[in-house]
Amino acid sequence: MTETDKLSIEWHCTKLCNQFANLGDLNDFKALSLLFTEDGSMSRPSVPEVDIKGRQTIIDAFMQRPPLVIRHIVTNCVISVISETEATGFSLVIYLAAPHTDAALPLVAGPIQVGQFKDKFVNTGDGWKFKERKGQLALKTN
Fold first, then answer.
1. Amino acid 132: pLDDT
2. Are 74 and 18 in contact (CB under 8 A)?
């Protein structure tokens, strides 16, 4: 595997981390679920003990979320290439949310939360996907 191949894998996996945040913020849960393999799993940083497995279950879990205006800021994303078909990753996410209202933006957000994700990626026939995304909350404000 060349250095260019490794850089390409790192870029594709980093893009998945950013797409996950953006699609979640846009409430596009169908598109978000397609970032995962069919049997992929995830856990939210706020409830790391709850394993959400499978694309439809991921959609359903997000649909149960109350109506919020949310923004995720993804940072410190580091991808480790294992092979041409496997990689792992670590990233931090800063989470801000406010109840959805008809008020004009900007809204006043609730407490700041800082979480982290540990990811397993696989290269499928449809490109790179999350196989596993495990979240954990690290910090929060009152």
1. 98
2. yes
